[in-house]
Structure of 2,5-diketo-D-gluconic acid reductase:
Amino acid sequence: MSELDKDAAKVPMIELADGNRIPQVGLGVLRIDDEGVTPVVESALAAGYRHIDGAAGYNNEGGVGRALEAGGWTTGERRRDLWVTTKLRDSEQGYDSTLKAFDRQIGLLRLDYVDMYMIHWPTPFDWRSDVSWKAMRKLRNEGRIRTLGVCNFLPEHLERLHDETGDWPAINQLEIHPTWQQRETVAFCKAHGIAVEAYSPMARGKDLAAGDGTIERIAAAHGVSPAQAILRWHVENGTIIIPKSAHAARQRENIDLFGFALTPEEHAAIDALDGDGRMGHDPMTFSYA
Ligand SMILES: NC(=O)c1ccc[n+]([C@@H]2O[C@H](COP(=O)([O-])OP(=O)(O)OC[C@H]3O[C@@H](n4cnc5c(N)ncnc54)[C@H](OP(=O)(O)O)[C@@H]3O)[C@@H](O)[C@H]2O)c1
């Protein structure tokens, strides 16, 4: 095993209800342009990341695909060791439009299959998740998607999807960080075997200073960074995380979470930071287009 593969092996795999296994830590690539994302994905793969979280809406799938192809990650054993997620644009929801969007996206990514395809927002005011899901199911049956997921679904959206398709998604990707923990939705997911994946796991950086220095004090006690203290809290909660950094040193930091543990008191102190710290959008009203 190479040094790199040893690093990757430290990241636990989370088993999903569909039997697939996802690396608990991945790299988010939101707000990085198509040209800039190629070296960012390359440095993450070099740091031991084996999970990339993208979306059509990030307008950089081509740049992700170039990094994967250049590193030999699109075929063979390397491909099998990698988890690639991408997401359907809200404006492309619908049966035929999902199939068409997927063809374009997989071409940009230079892959034969993606590990996970997700509905990006529920858009309950223009609900098409039922037909989009049926198209995604067809793609899974054809072997072009391994796992089907959703993002930003509240319990009522999960129930509606289940009523209309008979399925629960394997994963729900939600905004979760110390000051916005969404406990009710997380509990609903756990009760229905839906794995929880945290986006903006550090509140885009804002929670690094949460609780009047609580995070900083916990980090200092372990000789780690505030980012590592927050990400370790997520890991201990069993949550899948996709921190974004465009910088190689921070990418290494954000995956180096398995050499320390929070005390029960420290873990509880971060639990107690829950509040109204939402950084992103309200799934009841938002569309990413
Ligand atoms: N499904 C959805 O609707 C949805 C919505 C939002 C996000 N996401 C996904 O979740 C991913 C992560 O969320 P996010 O990008 O919103 O927020 P995040 O990961 O909580 O925070 C990223 C920010 O923190 C900084 N940062 C990263 N590591 C750091 C470290 N070790 N120390 C200090 N600062 C650090 C980054 O700056 P640098 O890059 O300059 O290091 C960036 O400004 C996204 O990239 C995307 O893949 C999904």
